[in-house]
Amino acid sequence: MKFFFILLSLVFADNRCSESKINQNAISFEYSTQSRGKYKNIKISKKNISVVNKRATPPHTKTCSETHWNKLLKALKSIDVENIPNLKAPSENRFFDGAAIARLKIIYDGTAYESQSFDHGNPPKEIEVLVKEILSTSENIE
Fold first, then answer.
1. For residue 28, which of 130, 124, 139 has the smallest C-alpha distance?
2. Least confident of 6-15, 21-30, 86-95, 132-141
3. Residue 30 maps to which CATH number?
4. DSSP letters along 86-141, please?
5. What would the pLDDT profile of 78-119 be if each residue is shown by its tens digit?
6. Quick check: is 37 in a domain?
7. pTM value?
8. Residue 20 maps to a domain
């Protein structure tokens, strides 16, 4: 198992490697945000982008373009995926309803790497570029 994590880290951290060296079909991204009256869940895979804007409603789905997918992979390359659960949020407004609660999950080959909760709009610096790219990619689907 330790070997798998080391291998995965090398694949994601190697800026010289091309996206074709990893199994792109085994990667997906999930971003969720919720507060007292709001809810949003974004799921992105190489094939589809799915957005749910209200609990218990069907998702809006569209095909993920190659351009969007490559931007997401580029943003992912600078992230230490194994360390995502250990990232600390830069602010705590979500504790008193000052911001929606957000979480990022990256799934690779059946293994999920999920962040701790953070304020929507203020993610940890290490994942900020990826979160912004996920939100940008999902904006055109609604």
1. 130
2. 6-15
3. 3.30.1560
4. GPPPS--GGGGTSS-EEEEEEEETTEEEEPPPEETTB--GGGHHHHHHHHHHHHTT
5. 999 999 999 999 999 999 889 999 999 999 999 999 999 999
6. yes
7. 0.82
8. no
Range of the domain at 96: 2-14+26-139
pLDDT for the residue 81: 93
CA distance 113 to 74: 18
What is the pLDDT, as a whole number, of residue 16? 38
19 assigned to some structural domain: no
How far is CA 72 from each of CA 34, 50, 52, 58, 62, rounded to the nearest angstrom? 23, 15, 20, 24, 16
CB atoms within 10 A of CB 110: 6
- Predicted local confidence at residue 4, as pLDDT: 42
